[in-house]
Amino acid sequence: MTIIPIIPRGLPAEKPDSRTILHLSRPTWSHWSLIAAGLLLLVSAPASADVPVAERRLQLLQQRYQKLQEQFAKDMNALAQDCESQSYFKDAEEIRKRALPPESGAYDVDLLPTEPLPSIPLNLPDEERQWRLKLRKLETDYSTNLYLVARDALNKGFPSLAFQLIREVAFHNPDNRNARGMLGYVQDQGKWTTSFRKLMASKKMVDHPRFGWIEEKLVSRYENGERLLDTQWMSAEKEAAIRSDFKYAWEVGSEHFLVRTNHSLEKGVEISRALESFHDFFLREYTAFFNSPQQMQRLLDRGSSTQWNPKERYHVNYYRNKDEFVAALKARQPQIEKANGLYMPHDRIAYFYFDEQPDDTDEQRADKRETMYHEVTHQLLGESRQRTVDVGERANFWVIEGFPCYLESYRESSHEPHVGNPRHIRIYWARRRALEENIYWPMRQFTRLGKADFPLEPDAYNQAAGMAHFFLNYEDGMYRDGFIQYLSNVYDPVDRLRNSTTSLEQILGVKYEILDEQYRDYLKSLPSDPPSGLQVIEVRE
To answer: In a 10 Å sphere around its CB, with 0-12 CB exposed, 13-18 middle and 19+ buried, how is residue 263 labelled?
Structure first.
């Protein structure tokens, strides 16, 4: 008996145009800010080959952070007790919440105030003013100590940890200019904002929940059902009829994306917001891809002053149905009818279409957006360099697809987005095939494969996703920065450097054979039960 997963090939049987990264249709199962300095080339030297030393350095940094956090929590909880003894019960509860680590989910570390921290009023009761002054000092001192650890993390080659700490620095001291600047903030009339929002405010634009960025003076007429097309006012229905032709599609501009769609203005805004959320998450989690430790060090020292440039936005075309999507692309992309989205690197546009049903659940709608996140991952990586290059041609193609396949698991949540669900369909099959059916390509062989030789099989794409999951999460992210450096090297715009990329085992300083063993052990630690709604069929040989 052969158990075959109901999951189509990652690519069509006939190889696509080498310029095109295609994500095929597949069945669905119940499945921050851009650093204002811009997308910069990673030029750091390879990580030390002495892995025990690298591990020890990371452990020491983590221990320093843990020690600081424990002392901070102890001091904050003692202050909370003092507040309770004076009947400031709600304030005590808030102090205890702010003493928790970010991973507790008790607060959003990226939710920063726009106003500078106010002075502690002089007319407060003495006891209240005293505990508020102590609270301010505890948080400011803690953020200063975290900043020092962040700088050391950069110096020792751990940019991901550094950026994580910088976010926490800004949370506990929102007026830290270096941390704010590194996170893309500028000051405008005494308030913290982004260069994009500063520009929008100067143009008297507001971010409307239905219509996106729109001139404030137009809002009332739009809410009354009128629409402005060029210089002519008309009904929403008439505008929709005109814009149904993609030549006259709505253009929904946001900070990082320009979405063109003939579906509806509201759907364009919805897609734009989803992509902005994904972009923010991507830049927050994978900052090291875009900034070397040296470049991040300069950001730490000076902050960032880069102005927003609309020409740097990512372009997305979103069609109102699949027929129009296919008609628009069939002359350039073979077998486009089998796709439900793709990114074309050489025109730098990602293409999608509306395929939702009125009775779709939230989970089903999230499932249907997996392709969008997969293809936009290709877009974010590919357009991080000014020159479009063909990546993975000679080797390392697994990571070109494995990382986007891993990010298919991206999900929004009530608290904050997350990625890497170990029960995601791709991780489930990567685990099952490797552990239960012994279907596995050894890493030394797998990483050497270029695009032409990479197996056009779901097992290969699922293993690539599983390996990305491993390198990003194994032992609390021990290989994370090395993996991201490897990924950045694969996208190097200099052909000579890209095609002679230092191997992953050289960057990590661990032989592939050991990584194979660690990977299998890691898979054993993941849940073995299938995702909800998974279908399998048995075929007799």
So the answer is: buried
